[in-house]
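STRUCTURE:
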């Protein structure tokens, strides 16, 4: 996908059923384990399985520490989960409503997992700047996230 899009999607076939993948995604306590960017430090709010409308926080670090607030905006058990992310303070100008989405498509040989970074849902008009600054690294980080999910659910080190 080109850099001018408001969405970036990466996908990976993981040789495991959808259920353990979804379980991992629906537990915010485990997000630091799967985060390919290394910026997620820990969940704020305790371990629980996410449901539609749930809010959860993350302690983050990307040059400086910050926190995000996330709201689950889509959820179909073992098929789709998405949350909208916001941050307070000055970072709120950059993290102002982007959506992270995971779609799971069962296949005979496993599950096709799609991760999408969607900035079309941001409130501010910072999208062109965000896109230019973050698109390339976001794609790399998402590819690494899917590799980590693969490794966790299959117990095998997966090639990217």
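SEQUENCE:
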């Amino acid at each position: 996908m080109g850099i001018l899009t408001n969405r970036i999607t990466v996908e990976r076939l993981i040789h495991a059923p959808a259920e353990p993948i979804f379980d991992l995604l629906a537990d915010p306590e485990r997000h630091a384990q799967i985060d390919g960017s290394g910026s997620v430090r820990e969940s704020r709010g305790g371990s629980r399985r996410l449901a539609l409308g749930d809010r959860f926080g993350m302690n983050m670090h990307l040059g400086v520490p910050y926190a995000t607030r996330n709201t689950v905006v889509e959820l179909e058990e073992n098929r789709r989960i998405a949350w909208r992310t916001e941050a307070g303070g000055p970072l709120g100008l950059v993290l102002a409503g982007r959506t992270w989405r995971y779609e799971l498509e069962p296949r005979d040989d496993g599950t096709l997992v799609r991760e999408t970074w969607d900035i079309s849902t941001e409130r501010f008009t910072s999208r062109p700047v965000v896109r230019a600054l973050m698109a390339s690294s976001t794609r790399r980080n998402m590819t690494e996230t899917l590799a980590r999910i693969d490794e966790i659910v299959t117990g095998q080190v997966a090639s990217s």
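REMARK: The first helix runs from residue 18 to 25.
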